[in-house]
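Subject: Sanity check before I submit

Could someone independently write out the structure tokens for this chain? I want to compare against mine line by line before I put it in a report. The sequence has 201 residues.
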Amino acid sequence: MSLSTTPRLPFLLQAHALSGGPGGQAVFEPLNFSWPAGLNWVCGDEGCGKTTLLRLLAGDLKPLSGSVETPPGGVFWLDLQGAAHDETTVQACWDKLQAHYPHWNSALLHDLSEALDMTPHRHKRLNMLSTGSRRKVMLVAALASGAAVTLLDQPFVSLDQVSIRLIKDFLSEAASQPGRAWIVADYEAPADLALASVLEL
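---
Independent answer below. Compare away.
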């Protein structure tokens, strides 16, 4: 495991001797790490624990050891890949999430929906969408949530190049905003984005 951090306060999310994994099996060694404001990257090969770490940070998975210190502004995490969400419409998904995030930006959601060509799909069920469009539902919600910490798991999978560029442009701009942290998990850290920290599992 290797990591690099550009000192930048405040730390918005901290893991203390954190370990865990599905089925009660630890995927990585106990982790101590602090994520500052800005754009942060978690990278590594398939099966190294990137998704598991995000789930632990979000509280979606109970740790085997250690703890996570989260900010008052909340942590956004959403996984729409499971069949449990198939019958939910895009709009119903967004409406439900809005109730949980007090700083939700409806104007931004509208703009992102238009830019990512999701407006015509707002009243479709998730099981009617392509893999890429289903991922866009999560991305639009994540970017509009207003959460202090936003967790994104492989956000560019199944997206077209125009959509990838738009998301990268948004993250590049968001990286300079004080008081918010973005933690993205993917195989490699990008060379074209300014990163506050990189954690390699």
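---
OP: Matches mine. For the report I'm noting this point. The chain has one domain: 10-200.
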